[in-house]
Amino acid sequence: MSYRLLHTTSPFVIKTRFRFRLVGWLVKNPAFIRVWCCKNCYRTAARIEMAKADSLVILDKDSLEKKKTAICNTGSKKLQVIADFDATLTRYWINGQRGQTSHGLLQQENPEYDDKRQKLYEYYHPLEICPTISIEEKTKLMEEWWEKSHALLIEGGLTYSAIKMSVSNALIAFREGVVELFEYLEERDVPVLIFSAGLADIIEEVLKQKLHRSFKNVKIISNRMTFDTDGRLVSFKGKTIHVLNKNEHALDMAAPIHDQSGVSNGLTDDNASVKTRTNVILLGDHIGDLGMSDGLKYENRIAVGFLNDNIDKSLASYQKAFDVVYLNDAPMWGVLDLVSDLCSSRGD
Ligand code: TMP
Ligand code: MG
């Protein structure tokens, strides 16, 4: 080895010497570490609190507290969570682009049909989120949209393998904290019903591919497909669920997440137990999502709304309809806090 190489002080050697000296100094001055840690933890906690306050709206805090107390008194044995899927469990924006819905992510083998469904989306989605159209008129428009969209999926011969491929290519992501929320509820045997006007078969595939695990407490109530022996879509089971008819009849369609047969629309024993859980946390991004608990004779319900779009025009109605409203595509941490408050109670 040359003399030059042995005696040159390389940047690596300089950095390593500096690191040793710094560690030595810190060991002699532990107070510095304590102050630095406190300041930074405080700053991080303060930032989280500010972000939460910025995106959280509660119109009637007293009413919320009363509901929380009533639920706390019975504990987790009477609790269940009913959650919408698109834009509630999933994010509305992903890296500056609109996240896709379970309908929107589908790519059929014949792209002509994707274009047709995209045109329907461009026409009907602004109507879906328009705050000035009456519920009656909007219900008719939504029926029309779902009917046309489902017909195009059948006509275009959607296959199960196209579903798998579409999900793997999709721009779809869960809100931060969704997995932790599901895990927390699973550990306490609290059921979660995902109640969606989207497509059950796609939601199952999204859970499988994006979360890489299943939850024994999670069930899906949504539009379910029937495939022929070649794996081609031939029909949809039961009554169509769209954003404004999430009602009792739809609740009766509850089927366990892995039940691919799904022939029966009736309540199984397991599903019936859902009816005895009379404390409900409802999560939705649409006023129509409030109908998800209509089939239950609940005693207490805390409704959490995610307002993703048209905030200026829709906030007034959202804060009246929901006990808690989250803005700005907020993560699920606030809901996890709420649920953990409710579960750490006398009833447990
Ligand atoms: P959700 O009940 O899980 O929120 O699912 C319904 C969403 O699906 C709703 O916001 C509109 C959207 N949708 C599409 O993106 N494309 C479609 O073709 C249809 C019928 C609905
Ligand atoms: Mg939704």
UniProtKB/TrEMBL annotation:
Annotated keywords: Hydrolase, Magnesium, Metal-binding, Nucleotide metabolism, Nucleotide-binding
Gene3D superfamilies with a match to the protein in the record: HAD superfamily/HAD-like, Pyrimidine 5'-nucleotidase (UMPH-1), N-terminal domain
Alphabetical list of InterPro entries matching this protein: HAD-like_sf, HAD_sf, Pyrimidine_nucleotidase_eu
GO terms for biological process, alphabetical: nucleotide metabolic process
Its EC number(s): 3.1.3.5
GO terms, molecular function: 5'-nucleotidase activity; magnesium ion binding; nucleotide binding
One of the record's GO cellular component terms: cytoplasm
Catalysis performed (reactions): a ribonucleoside 5'-phosphate + H2O = a ribonucleoside + phosphate
Family membership: Belongs to the pyrimidine 5'-nucleotidase family.
Record protein name field: 5'-nucleotidase
Organism field: Thalictrum thalictroides
